[in-house]
Amino acid sequence: MLEKIKETADFLKSVMKTQPETAIILGTGLGSLVNEITEKYEVQYKDIPNFPLSTVEGHSGKLIFGKLGSKDIMAMQGRFHYYEGYSMKEVTFPVRVMRELGIKTLFVSNAAGGMNPDFIIGDLMIIKDHINTFPEHPLRGKNIEYGDRFPDMSKAYDPELIAMAKEIAAEKGIRVMEGVYLGTQGPTFETPAEYVMFHRMGGDAVGMSTVPEVIVARHCGIRVFGISVITDLGLEGVVVEVSHEEVQKAADEAQPRMTTIFKELVNRS
Ligand code: HPA
User: How far is CA 226 from the centre of its chain?
Assistant: First the structure.
């Protein structure tokens, strides 16, 4: 495993013209951040040794390097989901490669179903904590000496970055909520009873990604910041149908607000 990570990192180092310390996983709702990246150069996932290939609709697979404002960054366009059939080690492989490349801070976005009754569709939720319900743990197995066997998760989402993001949102007049992201395996959206259960468990929003990457990033000592776009609501007593198209539409509508916050935060952090 470590050998594969190093092999991939060595390949990337051989093509990298910059040394970014910031990485961004362009989840749903953050696709248009790509348009803000300057001095861009790209590497297709299919050309990267050991990299999984992304299959889900609306995600194309490549690493994009360049500048966001004045910061050197690397961005993942297309992430790997457990529901696609990848193991947790595959889902999180790119994050371990990031660690080898010298990444210090990771920014993530996702689409999520809101369970907090204060939320409305289109809201941005700064992730303050998460609940892991995935059936496989990304750190299961022999510990890679990037971090402790039993890593601390008390501050998985960096409090300083959260505070900064709230400041930025206030300055720009963007409504932001804050909450707990509950990660579930998918690919089904929740039944009404599951939304109620996940809310009672302490989740404010539920989605099918992010938690594995964040766990591995923290194990690697990488700081993390994340935002969920609330694309649909699963509220107690209200049964609604959810479709992938609706999720995309709500996420697209939230893109400009997401992009503003991330761009500014990356530059201030
Ligand atoms: N549940 C799980 N994942 C999601 C949802 C949801 O309601 N919305 C967007 N991703």
Answer: 6
Is the C-beta atom of 88 inside 6 A of ligand 1?
no
- The CATH number that applies at residue 242 is 3.40.50.1580
- Going by alpha carbons, the residue nearest to atom 10 of ligand 1 is 112
The number of distinct structural domains making up the chain is 1
- Whether ligand 1 lies within 6 angstroms of the CB of 231 is answered as yes
Return per-residue pLDDT of the chain as tens, 269 residues: 899 999 999 999 999 999 999 999 998 878 889 999 999 999 999 999 999 876 655 446 899 999 999 999 999 998 999 999 999 999 999 999 999 999 999 999 999 999 999 999 999 999 999 999 999 999 999 999 999 999 999 999 999 999 999 999 999 999 999 999 999 999 999 999 999 999 999 999 999 999 999 999 999 999 999 999 999 999 988 878 888 888 888 888 999 999 999 999 999 99
Domain range spanning residue 126? 2-268
Does residue 212's CB lie within 6 angstroms of at least one atom of ligand 1? no
Whole-number Cα distances in Å, 207 to 113, 135, 186, 190, 248: 6, 14, 8, 10, 13
Statement: the pTM of the whole predicted model exceeds 0.90: yes
Calculate how far, in angstroms, residue 229's C-alpha sits from the geometric centre of ligand 1.
Answer: 10
